[in-house]
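Example 9 (inverse folding). The structure is encoded as follows.
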């Protein structure tokens, strides 16, 4: 048995070389797949239903993939449409697919698989003990499900659509690996090899040397799979392919999917040549219980940001302590301006000092006491409304630029702002509301499939 899988790239809209795709088409894959979403960029795409990447960029990639599919007459699978996989994102990509079909004069049977979850269903599942927390998980209640929630599908809805005649599948939120594992598993490939190959393909050529937004190809056989980048100038190494199991996983050997666990502890990685790697020994361990990961997001407030910099060594030395004093002053100022309508629990003023624990905060392991020669300052003001955040930010920016630095007499400028005005409204900001799994009655329960002739 030999099953060939072509990955367009790591995310629809990030681009790939047309020559790489053409090389993959010449290798006659049984399926083309491409991920289109992620939670890597935080909860805003899910909360707003707005894609991260532009329509022009996504349509460019989708056009080339649809044309390639039409030439090969094999399934094309695109998952987590519109970044978050929300229904609105699936509709957005579906509209592009229809436009491309008209513009390129191509036809296909389309399956649209949606993953938005109905609040009533989730509340019932919670009451029945079918929704369970992962570690760490925020506390939830019935009201959690009144904000957007998607379920992350496995291979089963995709396989069902293909078995029903779909040639193009545009799916809502999906396991990245499931997009690439669906056809090999359905065709009878060893599930351990199929899922491990899928995990390797999910980010396109990101696991190649040098990492790139480009196409990848896997050939799955009875006792191994081979993986290679489709740019002739790129290459895969055993270390790079093995290391990809670390990406986005707490355990590099046990990778959890809706229906089981990919076990790579016994896998071996062998260089076939300078560009290709052969993998053996992967296993898939079916779970006793089928679970679907839930993702949810809700508005956490509205935000205004202020960006500045400091070059004065006296200010740099004093600033961490001054910030704490300033926050106390700001609490009083907010109380004066807003009274009981805005309590300290309703808003947040945060300083992030890039150069002093700006990235890691209290977890920074390399504190050596040496002061940086310059400091970047990011101030975020978060409040229940944009108007409140803007108003608070105006006096925060003003006061922060004239903090009383020990050793100086009279008024000085402490922070230099590159923009005028320095306050930059960001709009709504979001938080993740769930890190939970749901136990459906069947793998198809939570997803809705509709077919179209395009």
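The amino acid assigned to each position is listed next.
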């Amino acid at each position: 048995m030999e099953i060939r899988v072509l990955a367009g790239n790591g995310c629809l809209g990030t681009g790939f070389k047309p020559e790489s795709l053409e090389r993959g088409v010449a290798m006659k894959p049984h399926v083309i797949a491409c991920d289109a979403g992620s939670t890597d960029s935080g909860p805003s795409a899910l909360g707003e239903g707005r894609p991260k990447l532009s329509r022009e960029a996504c349509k460019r990639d989708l056009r080339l993939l649809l044309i390639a599919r039409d030439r090969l007459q094999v399934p094309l699978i695109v998952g987590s449409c519109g970044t978050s996989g929300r229904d609105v994102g699936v509709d957005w990509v579906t509209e592009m697919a229809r436009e491309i079909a008209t513009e390129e004069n191509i036809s296909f049977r389309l399956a649209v698989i949606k993953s938005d979850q109905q609040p009533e269903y989730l509340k019932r599942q919670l009451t029945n003990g079918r929704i369970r927390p992962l570690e760490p998980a925020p506390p939830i209640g019935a009201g959690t499900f009144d904000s957007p929630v998607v379920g992350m599908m496995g291979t089963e809805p995709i396989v069902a659509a293909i078995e029903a005649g779909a040639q193009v599948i545009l799916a809502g939120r999906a396991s990245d690996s499931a997009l690439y594992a669906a056809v090999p598993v359905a065709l009878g490939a060893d599930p351990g090899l199929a899922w491990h190959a899928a995990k390797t393909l999910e980010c396109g050529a990101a696991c190649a040397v040098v990492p790139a937004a480009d196409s990848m190809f896997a050939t799955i056989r009875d006792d191994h799979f081979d993986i290679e980048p489709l740019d002739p100038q790129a290459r895969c190494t055993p270390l790079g392919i093995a290391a990809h199991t670390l990406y986005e996983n707490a355990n590099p050997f046990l990778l959890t999917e809706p229906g089981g666990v990919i076990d790579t502890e016994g896998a071996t990685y062998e260089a076939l040549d300078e560009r290709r790697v052969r993998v053996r020994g992967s296993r898939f361990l079916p779970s006793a219980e089928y679970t679907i990961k839930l993702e949810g997001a809700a508005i956490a407030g509205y935000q205004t940001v202020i960006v500045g910099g400091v070059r004065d060594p006296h200010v740099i030395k004093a600033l961490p302590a001054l910030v704490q004093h300033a926050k106390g002053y700001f609490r009083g100022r907010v109380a004066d301006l807003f009274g009981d309508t805005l309590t300290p629990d309703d808003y947040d003023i945060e300083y992030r000092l890039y150069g002093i624990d700006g990235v890691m905060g209290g977890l920074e392991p390399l504190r050596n006491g040496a002061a940086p020669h310059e400091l970047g300052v990011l101030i975020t003001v978060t409040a229940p409304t944009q108007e409140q955040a803007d108003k608070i930010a105006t006096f925060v920016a003003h006061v922060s630029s004239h903090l009383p630095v020990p050793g100086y007499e009279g008024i000085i400028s402490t922070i230099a702002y590159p923009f005028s005005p320095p306050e930059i409204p960001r709009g709504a900001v979001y938080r993740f509301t769930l890190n939970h799994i749901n136990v459906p009655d069947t793998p198809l329960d939570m997803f809705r499939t509709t077919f179209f002739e395009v």
